Amino acid sequence: MAQLYLLLGGEKKSDMKKIMLISAIAATILSGSCKKAKELANISVDIPYTQQASIPEVDGYTPGVPIPGGVTVPLPAVPIATNSKQYVEQYHTSTNKIVKVSLKTLTIRTVAPAGQTFDFVDNIELFISAPGLPEKLVASQYTVPKGQTTLTLTTAGDVNLKDYFIQDTMYFRESIRINATPPTGTQLEIKSVFNLVANPLY
After folding, report:
1. What is the DSSP string of 1-29?
2. Is 110 helix (H, G, I), strand (E, B) or coil?
3. What is the pLDDT of residues 137-158, one digit of tens each?
4. Nearest Cα to Cα of residue 174 among 72, 75, 108
5. Structural contact between residues 178 and 70, judged by C-beta atoms closer than 8 angstroms
6. Rounded to whole angstroms, how far apart are CA atoms 49 and 81?
7. What is the pTM of this model?
8. DSSP-assigned beta bridge partners for residue 74
9. Tens of pLDDT along 29-84?
């Protein structure tokens, strides 16, 4: 009888262990499913911006004349009104539910003088900043082909720019290495697309 009791008791303990194991596995699967469902419910939208920038005259150099060895010219920062509050409201989320904001694409084209190419540029870097935040390199092109009027820069898509986006204003600043001084009045158009990923309010 004692042996039978021990046998039955052992079976009960074994059954309890199985139940606990199954429960743990089920909880893990459920947790993973909820997380996956939440990720699928995330908002992901592209937000475009367009800015104009001017290339200032380079003191000591004549427009169109080659510059031996080249020179780096930091351009003035261009302000961008983020309109982040309007965007998060439009897409039914909030700033504290933003998961990530990344720079998806960035193109720069010459708009004046007509037909002006980027032949005077050897390489270009673009930085982002915002009040109280450090400047970050977010796009670049280190080999500029000849004859181009539009450049598509390589973006640092893995950099999370949430803290910059939620500011009222952020800034783009270009740093270009030139081999000749561009014509006076050279104007550029900067088109950027940011990708916003956020959790919905409900």
Report:
1. -HHHHHHHHHHHHHHHHHHHHHHHHHHHH
2. strand
3. 999 999 999 999 999 999 999 9
4. 75
5. yes
6. 9
7. 0.79
8. 175
9. 444 444 444 545 799 999 999 999 999 888 888 888 999 999 999 999 999 999 99
